[in-house]
Amino acid sequence: MKRFLGITMAFALMLFCSSCYTLKNESIPADMKTVNIQFFENNAALVVNNLSQTFTEALKDRIRTQTRLSLVRGEADATMSGAITGYAIAPVSIQATANNVAPIADANRLSITVRVKFSFDAAKTPADKKISFEESFTKYADYKGDIGSQEQALIQQINKQLIDDIFNKAFSNW
């Protein structure tokens, strides 16, 4: 009897968790079935060679794995486009030096800004039209030492934060 009760509770928990997962996509209209994610060109003053490709592919992967939408090229129910508009490194803390030598940066901040336009082209109701947006998203990561050895890891970290914000804005109405 205890085994039956345990199996029943495990099954109920599994059903509950799966229903929670579907709530995540509640704001995706039923008639939105396809999305075209266009290449995000790097228009920042400082350019990192693989940033556009890395960002675009990570965004596609997130949508592919966490929504029911199909990624297509060309005509789609929704389109996401944009550009990387900012890539900047700035000091965030200063370290004093001896003998009146100019202070140096103790820590730096890498910031990335992405301009995103999301349009639900097949919107039929006013509520569907509210899903569309055009907005800039900025995220950053602080680091110490030389940027060269840390840059790719920092880019991945920042891309994840940016994609979380963009995904939530487009598909979770946050």
Could you say which overall geometry the principal axes of the C-alpha atoms support? elongated
How large a portion of the residues is in β-strands, by DSSP E?
25-35%
Number of helices: 4
Poorly predicted ranges:
10-25
Q: Any idea of the CATH class?
A: Alpha Beta
Order of SSEs: HEEHEEEHEH
- The CATH topology is Double Stranded RNA Binding Domain
Overall domain count: 1
Largest sheet entry? 6 strands, mixed
| Termini gap | 45 Å
Rg from Cα: 22 Å
CATH architecture: 2-Layer Sandwich
Share of helical residues: 25-40%
Could you walk me through the main structural features you see in this protein, from its secondary elements to its overall organization?
The protein has 174 residues and is an alpha/beta fold. The chain has one domain (28-171): Lipoprotein like domain (Double Stranded RNA Binding Domain, 2-Layer Sandwich). The protein has helices at residues 2-23, 51-66, 126-129, 151-171, and strands at 34-37, 41-42, 70-71, 78-95, 104-120, 133-143. Strands 1, 2, 3, 4, 5 and 6 form a 6-stranded mixed beta sheet that branches. β4 (78-95) and β5 (104-120) form a beta hairpin. α2 (51-66) packs across α4. The radius of gyration is 22 Å and the shape is elongated.
